[in-house]
Amino acid sequence: MLHTLKDLPLSDKDIAPLIISADKVAHVQMNNPLQHALLVLIKSGYTAIPVLDASYRLRGLISKSLILDAMLGDEDFELERLSTLTVNNVMAKDVPCIRPDAPFSKALSLLINHSFLCVVDEEQAFSGILTRRSTLALISKYLHQH
Ligand code: AMP
């Protein structure tokens, strides 16, 4: 019987096997028009995706709700803002992140409040994401086997 997270043999393991690698992660760049970001979000079906710079460093997150907020004028949605504003104008800069060698227990704590974490090194080089879904799936698998 497990009593605390510390009893879970997973908790000291690192998160590396759960990371969705950068080449499989939908992303946009800071200077993209909002229209492009909205298309990527709609076509991918994701709520939010990372914003990277030309050197693949993480710079922010863009989401459907941030874009809708930015389009809202005094009375109406102003569609022309989709082409006049860039991702950089609208993205959130405070991004939930984790290091690639972080322990599973750290990821689990952060994933309570975020549906995914960006995996970056000290220089913000982006190596992928860790989702709440894949983390919970691993715990579920573990609990069913023991
Ligand atoms: P999921 O747990 O698969 O529902 O993913 C949760 C959130 O993580 C999604 O809404 C996206 O914001 C993000 N996400 C998951 N997979 C990807 C991906 N391949 N590319 C970009 N963002 C992703």
UniProtKB/TrEMBL annotation:
SUPFAM superfamilies cross-referenced by the UniProt entry: CBS-domain pair
SMART domains associated with the record: CBS (SM00116)
Source superkingdom: Bacteria
Every CBS domain range: 19-79, 91-146
InterPro entries recorded: CBS_CbpB (IPR048125), CBS_dom (IPR000644), CBS_dom_sf (IPR046342), Diverse_CBS-Domain (IPR051257)
Pfam family, one: CBS
Keyword ATP-binding carried by entry: no
Keyword Transferase: no
Keywords of this entry: CBS domain
UniProt cross-references to NCBIfam families, sorted A to Z: CBS_CbpB
Name of the protein described by the UniProt record: CBS domain-containing protein
Organism expressing this protein natively: Shouchella clausii (strain KSM-K16)
